[in-house]
Amino acid sequence: MSYSEVIKNFNRIRDYMREFYVYGFKGRDGFPYKSGRSYDDERRRLESWLGDYMGFYQTPEGKRVFLSIDSRSVRHNPLYKAWKARSFTDGDITLHFILLDILASAEQALCLGEILTEIDRYLSGFQEPRIYDESTVRRKLKEYVSEGILMAHRKGKVVYYSRAEDTPLPGRDMLDFFSETAPCGVIGSFLLDKGTGQEGIFACKHHYITGALDSEILCRLFLAMGEERAVTLEMTPRRGNLVSRNTVVPLQIMASAQGGRQYLMAYVPGSNRIRSFRLDHIALVRTGERSPRFHELRQTLDGMRAHMWGISTQGRTGQRMGHVEFTVQYDDQEQHIHRRLEREKRCGRVERIDRNTSRFSADVYDASELVPWIRTFICRITDVHFSDASLETRFGEDLKTMYRLYGLEGGDSI
Q1: H or E segment to which residue 395 belongs
Q2: What gap in Å lies between CA 253 and CA 183, rounded to an integer?
Q3: What is the rounded (10 degree) CA torsion for 268, 273, 278, 279?
């Protein structure tokens, strides 16, 4: 079987792209659950799409391949190229252009029988014409109606088909912004390909490009939420082929402001709670029955967000709620510290003690989610308290370790 640049199973290339870009420095032995042939084929596909961003170096164990993309200097997400290499059959692409050509030149709408006659006439000039049966053409027409490519109207028992009106594309600047910032921005990238090749006017300071790999999963979840349906998620860990299945009611998509990672917030009937699922761990989404509790569950999640710092809905010890507070002091010239607390407080509260002192407090499900943010105020923190004693002890031990690491005095008094 010869190598082909186009792909049929996107999940496979999705795994390889994430491994090479997010984790990097991969050789054949880094994919023990994949065959050597599979590794070579997927690596060559990546090189054909993203050759300008791929690099490698030699080690005693062999060649190590990685993707290196500086998202600050790339205006358009290069990972979208994988979506534009999906495979298709000769029959599909031939029927596509025949149908659109026939209906574009027809003076009026045509029924299925008339379309079949036109297809036979269209192909009669070939020595070995391809034959399309009625069910294949009917299925393709139905698909194109659902996609908005064709229009259908019924006269009695007969359905007639015609080309849909061309929709003018939004302005290029709008598409340029949408394609790099919105969920499922790959749609905007496809539309941009239809326009001119002029450079866009936007550049992103924080450009989270890996979300492109989860676009199909995200689209299916949005459709399920729009129809208020439950879904079955097939989850795969980062390594190995073990698959777990969870039937849930999808409620909301949340994205990390720090790293761009996307999560699904969903109700799990088996445990009777709302929890998060990483989108990059979801391999497949199967749409199920409509959920009569969708709006009730969405309201429950909205109420919970008043105590969610991130995506956790339960503390490390299983406790329902935890309290955290800390006090900072700053100089007269550092009034921006208080403004920063107000800007970044999320579900917390900020109290101004005096001109140079502020206190932050919050009641949250998982206080450990705040620790990385609290650390950014070190050297100005005068007091910190967690209701979870183990978390408070760990925070203090981390500070002592930092003091020892930098050879500073006073670490023992923390």
Answers
A1: helix 389-405
A2: 10
A3: 40
